[in-house]
Amino acid sequence: MKLLATRYRWLSLILAVMTTIALVAFGSVNGSAFNAQAQPAPLRRVNPAAIAAQIYTQIPELSLENQYISNETGSPAADNTLVSRFVRYHVYTKERLTNLRFEWKLTLADYLGAFESISVEDYPDYGLRQNPVEGDITAVRGLSRELRDRLVNRLYEAFTAPVSS
């Protein structure tokens, strides 16, 4: 009987801890120090081409993947790069947050086939004659782990850096 009572005490303690963790994680503990929420990042316009140019300056070994032909001009779309399409996919297609590194890693995982599958229908052609989804997936999968980490970190930094006036 004493052993059973000890088990119930441990079980109730574990349940109490798990409930507390769940309440804190889902923000249901109002008025406490646990309910502190991160301040939203200031809204800013996203210019994928400008962000991509910044990233390519910081990581010049990244492939541009800008050989695709534009529907408008009929010539290669030089500003339509792998990184600009990556940003567009992240922000506009998946509507993921830009101020969380984990969200960028989820997008990277999509390209690696480890999270959500990217289909041609989900990947806009971005004004190109040929949809670049296959080439982009191949290019991202060809990056080393170190290069993928640097890409995620630079994208996170680009979106969380203080807005200059």
Q: What does this protein structure show overall?
A:
Residues 28-36 have low confidence and may be disordered. The relative contact order is 0.13. The chain starts with a helix and ends in a 5-residue tail after the last helix. 51% of the residues lie in helices and 0% in strands. It is mostly helical and 165 residues long. The chain is elongated, with a radius of gyration of 22 Å. The protein has six helices and no strands. The chain has a domain at 48-160.
Largest sheet: none
Net shape: elongated
Rounded radius of gyration (Å): 22 Å
Q: What structural category do the secondary elements indicate? A: mainly alpha
Average pLDDT, rounded to a whole number, is 85
Count of helix runs? 6
User: What percent of the residues sit in helical stretches (DSSP H or I)?
Assistant: 40-55%
Taken as a percent bin, the fraction of beta residues is under 5%
Order of helices and strands: HHHHHH
Give the strand tally.
Answer: 0
Unreliable residue runs: 28-36
